[in-house]
Amino acid sequence: xxxxxxxxxxxxxxLIALQVLVFNHIHIAGYAxxxxxxxxxxxxxxxxxxxxxxxxxxxxxxxxxTFTNTPGMAAAALTFIGFIRPALLHFxxxxxxxxxxxxxxxxxxxxxxxxxxxxxxxxLHESIFFSLEAFTLYNWQELLINIATSSALTTLIIIAIESxxxxxxxxxxx
Amino acid sequence: MNNLLDFLxxxxxxxxxxxxxxxxxxxxxxxxxxxxxxxxxxxxxxTASIDRFYGxxxxxxxLQHVNRKLTDHNIQLQRxxxxxxxxxxxxxxxxxxxxxxxxxSLEGYRLIPAKVISSTLVRRNNYLVIDRGxxxxxxxxxGVVSGGGVVGIVFLTGxxxxxxxxxxxxxxxxxxxxxxxxxxxYLQWDGGSPIEAxxxxxxxxxxxxxxxxxxxxxxxxxxxxxxxxxxxxxIHNAPDGVTYRLDVTLGTDFGRLRDVTVIATENxxxxxxxxxxxxxxxxxx
Lengths: 174, 285
Known about the structure:
By secondary structure, chain A is an all-alpha fold. Chain A has six helices and no strands. Chain A has one domain: Arp2/3 complex 21 kDa subunit ARPC3 (Orthogonal Bundle), CATH 1.10.1760. In chain B, the strands form two sheets. A six-stranded antiparallel beta barrel of chain B has the order 1-2-5-4-3-12. A six-stranded antiparallel barrel of chain B has the order 6-7-8-11-10-9.
């Protein structure tokens, strides 16, 4: 239990720091802003209680929001991701993993399903986040470009982080 | 009832989800500039009042410093105003008939422009100091004029400054005449108003009118003939019984005198000089 909490807290702090110090300053062509902190919710153990997922999501969003002066936006988006994560994971996870708890990752799941899992979550998150930020459909083309480019960039970064994580985790074992 | 509790237990995460989303949107609406524009003003007022309180305290603590800065600034501005006002007066100044006549009668003389740097008005023996001296070619007994007319005669010269004996000095005596008449006398002053002097030694048989022009005679070489001195204000009988004493309103406003011209004459003054020396020795005794 404690090890789990430490694991979660480590990623929580690390992803917030990355977001605040690095990713918030990236605005490719004025549209694409990577928001890879959503990765935190995706890699929580599969048996994490639904309410815990919601609380983690809200807390993460709230802290990110205070740093970016976007109160409520990331919190709303991440709470939603926390809400649908069990369903998402259930949809993408392999059948044989259903029974036992595991840490969602590219190695535990198949690469393609993990990629799909990440992509759907990121798309949902970016859609909610940028819709809330714009709060109007007046510039819907711009909003779509925003969501699409940011999702692509965020997914790319999450896959990169995931590959680093799995290589780090597998290296000591061998 | 049990069913309801079961339902709540089973789906409590859903209510938590709703609660957290509501909290998120509350944050969104209450704090975000754009989305919460309805509340924007009140939020802004809170921020502003906090800022103002902070600012008030800081201002109070800085008052002394601010005060001194303001005083300094004030002095600086005052000085600037003086300079600009002077420049404006110079530019606005329209040349009068008198000035043109003075300028005309001074043609052919070497003129040295000078500025009055100090003057007195209310004493019996008033003096002016001008910012030109021996280095500039000024010697004692040279005439000094201004746009308004005669000012006085250089009395002493230093290397850079000169002392001028103006017409409003009791020891001053300037040879002058009445324009278009041949009568001449001496312009003198015995205290009182700095714009009023008198001319003595005008014979009783002269037919004069109030308002006629007194000008320099040119008998001495201090002043060229025809420089405006003033106008007759009143005609009195002199106590000696044979001459008039003419009260003269001087053309030069000594109170506001600043730009003057020294007339550089090559010949030494004679008559006026002698009179000045005579008066000097008289007073010395």
